[in-house]
Each structure stands twice: as structure tokens, then as C-alpha cells.
Amino acid sequence: MKRPLLDVIFASGKRKDFLLLLKEGPQEMETVLDSLDTTRQALLPQIKVLEEHHLVIHYDDIYELSTIGKLVIDKMKTLLNTIEVFDNDIDYWGTRDLGFIPSHLLNKTNEFEKCQIVKPSLIDIYELDKRFHEGSKNSDNLYIVTTFLHPHFPELMFELIEKKVMTHFIISDELLRKLLETKSAEFMQIFQSSFVQIYICNKEMNFHFVSSNDYYLMLSILKNGGVIDNRYILCKSKKAVEWGQEFFKYCLKHSKLLTGI
């Protein structure tokens, strides 16, 4: 009697790693052994199980995924990436309100590669992440969807304007009203810069901020119940950056350009 495919794939680390390696294409046995740091004697019994369940085929000493194997492993890779993201800190993710993320982007959280959850110390709580800010200064574009402005917002923006970084903001209506109440000379100068675009979102924004530049994605997500804490997510990968840009475009559909104050 055949085993369930879930057991075949996940009950053995060697089988799982072998399948993931074959996802990259056909592999010679010697290459497989080197990549997995194992021996032929240890691996062959696991390969036999995979062949018996029609996930792997081989000719001479070359192994590759079967048609069924390709279908299964493609979905498996997405699942494993998603698990890896949440395994980074399941208590953090499990206590966050993710309802603001549209379903098509929620299904892409597996693309949050090379991410870490950052908890600033009390003395650094109002400091901008230096890696993200340095990345922003060296970027062509910076995309920010936010319900608040950093305490050092004017200084940070003047620095980016000087560097000719095109900065695109989507802010909440509540934040706009707060800015209009102050009407500071600094804000007016920033607003009038050709390197700044500000949009007002007409959709409820149940998150702190989502920002992306050419190198990083940074998110601050509210806890369940709308509670803010000082932890944030920082990701450095092309796919994560693209996710941030997609989120900006999604919010842009519910926003209008601020053309005058």
C-alpha cells in the first residue's frame, strides 16, 4: 500500500531536500551527493521511495522530477517559504492584525525572504532604521504608505530631496488634517518639492506603515485590537521589495493626489 504523499515528502528531510534540489532541474548523482552532503548508500533508499510514488524519474545516473513531481513540488516550495516566514517569529505574526493586506498579496507573504523582526531598544525607539534610510538615500524611488510621520520627518525628507530621491507618500485623511493644522514652513517646502508626491487614502488604514525603497521592505503592523508596538519587519530581497510596490499600487487605487493646501 502506498504512503500518503505528505508523508513521502515531509517525513524525511533527505527526500524533501532532494526534491527541492531537483526543482532546479535534472541533476547528476554526484552533484546531488555534494549538494546534500550525503552518501549514495544513505540517499538511494529515499530515492526509491520517491520513484515508487512517481515523483522522481531517472535515466543513467541523472535524476529529475516527474510531471506529477513538478506539480507537487511547485506548491510545496511556496508552502515551505510561507512556513519559513512565519517560523521566524510565530508569536509576532500570530498576534498581528493582517486584515489590511488584500488577499492577492496575503497569498504572497511567502515572498518575504531575508526578513527579520526588529525590536529597537528604548533609547533607539525614535531612531529610523539606518539600513533602510541608507538604502532610501541610494534609491531612485521611495514608496511610503503611512498613518504617522516620523519625529525627524523634515530632516529626513530634506536629505532625500537633496539626493533627488523621488518619494511617493500615501497618507491617511487623519494625518492630512493634522498636517494642515500645523502648516509648518518645513512641511510646505517639502510638499512643493518636485521630488515629492502625496496622495490621500480614502480607505481605512489599519496599520502603522508600509515602506519600500530599491533595496528594502519595511512594515510596522498593528497588534490585534489596534495596539501599536515598536517592533517592525525589515526584508532585503527583490521579491519583498516588489511586494511593497504592489501594496503601494493597491492603496493608490483608493487614493487621490494632493494638489494643493
Automatic annotation (TrEMBL):
Coiled-coil ranges (or none): none
Transmembrane intervals: none
Pfam families linked to this entry: FilR1_middle
Domain Methanogenesis regulatory protein FilR1 middle: residue ranges: 125-253
Domain of life of the native organism: Archaea
Protein name in the entry: Transcriptional regulator
